[in-house]
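Narrative of activities, Objective 1.

The group set out to show that a structural description can be obtained from nothing but a protein's sequence at a throughput compatible with the screening campaign. Below is one input-output pair from the validation batch, recorded exactly as produced.
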Amino acid sequence: MPELPEVETIRRGLEPCVVGLSLESVTVTDQKVLDWSAKEGRLAAVEGQRIEAVSRRGKYLVMVLDRHYLIFHLGMTGQLTIRDPRRHDSAFFERTVTGLEWCEQHAPDRHTHLHLFLGDGRQLLFRDIRKFGRVYVLGRSAEELAAFFRVHRLGIEPFTSDYNLKAFLSGFKNRTLRLKSLLLNQSFVAGVGNIYADEALFEAGVHPARRVCGLRKAEKERLFLAVQKVLERGIEFGGTSFRDFVNSEGEKGTNQEKLYVYGREGEPCLTCGTPIVKTVISQRGTHFCPTCQPRGGKRL
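Output recorded for this entry:
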């Protein structure tokens, strides 16, 4: 699933390409990707509007228009790419787990459910194989946008002043769940998913199955710094591409080559050499080093 670094990578790619352009027309080939807020003509209402900015909140990408917000959530397999008719389309959409092959451009196919035609002749394409992604249309008001994010229960936003140690520590109060489960809860820290939760826990040296109520303050402080560090690293390397994630140009990221534990079951820990273990917490595959992240809380 695209997490904060992947969505931020897409945002940074789109911003210089689309801001200032108009959305000339919209074509939908599968209504399933539209939230109720985008149906019954509201999506058509964005036609002709100028794109003023592209922002992000957690895993949500927000396109700021003249009179509306056009919001994308990429779900598990969503992609948002620019198609330029002046460039050659790829004959097929390349798939790789190495991150060493690159797709020149995303070519529309049966999984491309939304086409946004831009004023300069290019298209913005929304592609989603599993159709868990969603497109929303909101009126252009700060109150409506704030209400939208309240409904989706988004927690503190990394890389903002809201992400501070006091706010982070307050999220632990009256909690008894396992630490990995807390990190996956979007009402705690917005934008962290399975990959970056595992990486942050390794960086902080805490076991993913530890109970939140049993953590020492020093461990929470290490985790506070670790979350931001692994997210920054993900953005620096253009996101993590195991299967479906590509940036706005259809290119894969390289952060999968920089991971310490996620997806490395049985491989030696890059720090101590102990084989990485995979378990299941909150129905999600969870990777950790039993030496660097001991269950008892004290590193061996």
